[in-house]
Specification:
GO terms for molecular function: isomerase activity. InterPro entries: Xyl_isomerase-like_sf. It comes from Klebsiella pneumoniae IS43. The protein is an alpha/beta fold and 129 residues long. The protein has one domain: Alpha-Beta Barrel (TIM Barrel). 36% of the residues lie in helices and 19% in strands. The protein is built from four helices and five strands; from the N terminus they run E-H-E-H-E-H-H-E-E. It has helices at 26-35, 54-70, 88-101, 103-108, and strands at 8-12, 39-46, 74-77, 109-111, 121-125. Strands 1-2-3-5-4 form a five-stranded mixed beta sheet.
Length: 129
């Protein structure tokens, strides 16, 4: 991949195994990324983040921990996109709720851009100092 100039990846949590890193430990993922000079940009995604529920909150927190453990820089948050009408205020309200709902999220992340209710929101991971 590096010979082609490809060194940034987005990992997904919707693959058949249901896991972001299959059966690799966090340490193994970090070591492989370092060995092959791969930068893990994001884990894609918390879906549907704009449906505020305990299940989505737990998914968000677990993926945030996973992102931190493997060195990912951000976590993608995707709004419901099954054709159901979701008011923009609900999606924006969900973004505000996730920002303040969890102490672990509040201390480890910051949020970026919103274009519309159909856009995805990115949760950026703060580096530990």
């Amino acid at each position: 991949m590096n010979r082609l100039g490809l060194n940034k990846v987005e990992l997904r949590n919707d693959l058949p195994s249901g896991k972001v890193t299959d059966d690799l430990s966090h340490q193994q993922v970090r070591e492989l990324a370092a060995r092959y000079h791969i930068e893990i940009l994001t884990i894609n995604a918390v879906y549907p983040f704009n449906r505020r529920s305990e299940e989505v909150r737990q998914l968000t927190e677990s993926l945030l921990k996973e992102a931190q453990a493997i060195g990912a820089k951000s976590l993608v948050l995707c709004p419901l996109n099954d054709g159901s009408e979701v008011p923009a205020s609900e999606t924006l309200g969900a973004c505000a709720t996730w920002r303040r709902c969890s102490p672990s999220m509040a201390s480890t992340a910051w949020w970026s851009r919103w274009a519309s209710r159909k856009a995805r929101c990115v949760l950026h991971i703060r580096r530990r100092r």
